[in-house]
Design a protein that fits this description.
Layout (H helix, E strand, L loop, with lengths): L35 H7 L5 H12 L32 H23 L6 H9 L5 H21 L1 H8 L1 H26 L15 H12 L10 H4 L21 H17 L2 H29 L1 H8 L7 H4 L16 H15 L1 H11 L2
Helix pairs in contact: 5-7, 5-11, 6-7, 7-15, 8-10, 10-11, 11-12
């Protein structure tokens, strides 16, 4: 979520690679596709010709090192490898398009929403602020409006893509969600100290370090689809992914976990009623997203998602502690990738850019 940006099987001889067939990209809403591999693994009495394939699938291969022979996996992967990025597979033209689209979007956002002389952002904030004099209430209303639009459009994605296409629906989704997210962010920055002070721990030794580390870690729980920037900008055709590696082994809903960490850290640091209201609203929105996200993936991927769900967890590390998720010995390789290095740089940049963001928000007088 944009609000967060302030502060998202290893082999055993013989060396055979696990089958990685995926569900169709655009199944019917009423269908429950069963990947061929899932059928092979779950069918108790497969034809003779499929028995060897089932043994191969059950052995699997390591994402990080397909030939090491060190890690044994009892489960075959049904999902995708998250945060995978191969430089040699990138298209220079696609990234030129992405840069151009990003520039156009930022220009349109400034003219149509942010600029006080031409945009509607100030009028929107004034209208919502007119509902109540309480900054806490206004904060919650802004989050509710964003959540209603964001989750509502996400729920309509299948129908919307069939109606107007994947790219057009992504443009519509971003075009409505982004201005509302910016308004919520700016209002929070401008009014974060306007509420009733509930506690004051900024002078307590170690609190700043705790908040900083918690906030830093929270950015590594960004949902893996965020890494697919070409899809986010609709340069590549947007897809609904079924991720399985990396952060997904720790929690099936990393964005929710990251947002909760961010909220708890900032609530502890600021300690007033406005930030409590913001945290309650954001956490409630992401908890709803947990249910809604699982529901949508179940509709799209059927038994493939159920297989993934059985070996992952919502609560971080729960599936690992219960033995349902087995980490490869080279698990660290799933994080030593360019997207995570980029997240590290952007997180550090956002921290040092706090004064700039605060000054820019104050100039809008929202």
């Amino acid at each position: 979520m944009a609000f967060s940006l302030l502060l998202s099987t290893s082999p055993s001889p013989p060396r055979l690679t696990a089958l990685r067939l995926r569900a169709p990209s655009k199944p019917s809403l009423n269908s429950n596709p069963i990947p061929f591999k899932s059928f092979v693994l779950s069918n108790p009495n497969p034809p003779t010709s499929l028995r060897l394939i089932r043994r191969v699938c059950a052995r699997g291969t390591s994402i990080g090192d397909a030939g090491s022979g060190e890690n044994a996996s009892d489960e075959a992967s049904v999902g995708e490898d998250s945060a995978a990025f191969q430089l040699e597979e990138q298209s220079f033209v696609s990234w030129v398009y992405f840069t151009g689209i990003l520039g156009v979007v930022l220009l349109a956002l400034n003219v149509l929403w942010i600029d006080p002389s031409t945009g509607f952002g100030k009028a929107f904030i004034d209208a919502v602020s007119g509902i109540s004099e309480s900054h806490e209430v206004v904060m919650l209303i802004l989050i509710f409006i964003f959540a209603l639009v964001h989750s509502g459009l996400a729920s309509l994605r299948d129908a919307g893509e069939k109606l107007v296409g994947e790219r057009a629906f992504r443009v519509l989704f971003a075009g409505i969600s982004l201005p509302l997210a910016v308004s919520t962010i700016v209002y929070f920055i401008n009014h974060r100290y306007d509420g009733t002070q509930l506690w004051q721990v900024q002078g307590v030794s170690g609190i700043h370090e705790l908040v900083w580390v918690s906030n830093f870690i929270s950015f590594f729980f960004l949902y893996p689809s965020t890494f697919n920037l070409l899809e986010v900008a609709a340069v590549d055709k947007p897809k609904m992914h079924l991720w399985e590696t990396g952060i997904m082994r720790i929690t099936r809903h990393p964005q929710m976990v990251g947002q909760v960490m961010w909220c708890l850290a900032h609530t502890l640091w600021i300690g007033n009623s406005v930030v409590v209201a913001a945290s309650v609203g954001l956490i409630a929105h992401h908890l709803f997203g947990v249910w809604n996200g699982d529901r949508r993936l179940a509709i799209r991927y059927g038994e493939a998602f159920e297989a993934l769900k059985s070996r992952t967890s919502i609560i971080p590390f729960a599936a690992i502690l219960e033995g349902r998720q087995k980490l490869p010995k080279d698990y660290y390789k799933e994080f030593i990738r360019l997207p995570y290095l980029t997240i590290t740089a952007l997180t550090l940049g956002a921290y040092f850019a706090h004064p700039l963001m605060q000054a820019s928000s104050f100039q809008l007088h929202w």
